[in-house]
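pasting Pilus assembly protein CpaF for the record, 132 residues
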Amino acid sequence: MHANSPREVPARLEALAALGGMSPAALRSQMVAAIQVVLHVRRLPEGRRVLEGVGVVRRGDGDAVVVVPAWGRVEGWAVGRADLGAMLAERDVAAPWEAPVVPVAAGPVGHAEAAEVPVLRGGVASLRGVPA
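structre below
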């Protein structure tokens, strides 16, 4: 689906649902049940695509559905990070900001000059470092 930001996704889905005759209340119920995370992919001027943002779906006031930013390529982690972490934990996947690090040898064999490298767990690696 095309949207200029993750926050626009509920409105775009409502417009599509209206074309199909689905009521806004029915669509909102389906969105909350079926969509947990929204990934915003952007095409750069040279044609390469990048992950621009990650948002988590929440119920808003009344029966509204909102997408709350969890991570942005420029902004880094945002308020929805806790929700994203909870969703990952429910699936036994380590959150990227909690991934363990292991020391690796940086010098000749036998010299343990430690550099820290994140461990990839469950297909999840760090999007961007998070200050402690």
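DSSP finds three helices and six strands in the chain.
Residues 41 and 47 are 12 Å apart (CA to CA).
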